[in-house]
Design goal:
Length: 168
């Protein structure tokens, strides 16, 4: 097992697990408290509004104990290009952290463990006590998603929504 760590800048209470920088925010499922899966990748919801959180990525197959983590959630995420990375919505991908979708394009089970999310909710902190552990495991038997026929028409508001998300 290999451990990689890096600070990730959070804006508007989130950072991403994005595939090739794509942020299909209009497809986000906001029903979960910790993870909002999208048509590609996911948004991780933080406690702070703005600032840095510590993100740890573990690669390998060794199980991780849940004892030191306060919250955890899993979600199925689609990686169309096989280049899924931890990204700040403002600063982009964290080069210190590896590509998560090492098995290439396909479905993955995203597991996020967190601690410290409730310590300073909605605050702006240069350095937060929040920490996250990200694990991504391939789900090879699941077929690729079929595009919705209605989604093939251009969405004129998609680019405006994406810009608002990126600007905060």
């Amino acid at each position: 097992m290999t451990i990689h760590q890096a600070p990730v800048f959070v804006n508007e209470g989130a950072f991403g697990i994005f595939d090739h920088g794509e942020v299909p925010i209009e497809s986000a499922d906001w029903s979960g408290d910790l993870i909002a899966p999208m048509s590609a990748g996911a948004v991780v919801r933080t406690g702070i509004n703005t600032g840095n959180v510590r993100v740890e990525v573990r690669t390998g197959t060794s199980p991780v104990s849940s004892e030191q983590w306060e919250e955890e959630a899993t979600a199925l995420v689609w990686s169309p290009t096989g280049s899924m990375r931890v990204e700040s919505v403002v600063d982009g991908p964290r080069s210190e952290l590896p590509v998560l979708s090492a098995s290439g394009p396909g479905w993955y089970e995203l597991e996020v463990k967190a601690r410290g999310r409730r310590q300073a909710p909605d605050s702006s902190l240069l350095e937060s006590a929040e920490a996250y552990l990200i694990t991504l495991r391939p789900v090879p038997e699941k077929p690729a998603p079929v595009p919705d026929r209605a989604s093939t028409a251009p969405d004129r508001g998609a680019e405006a929504r994406r810009r608002r998300l990126l600007q905060g």
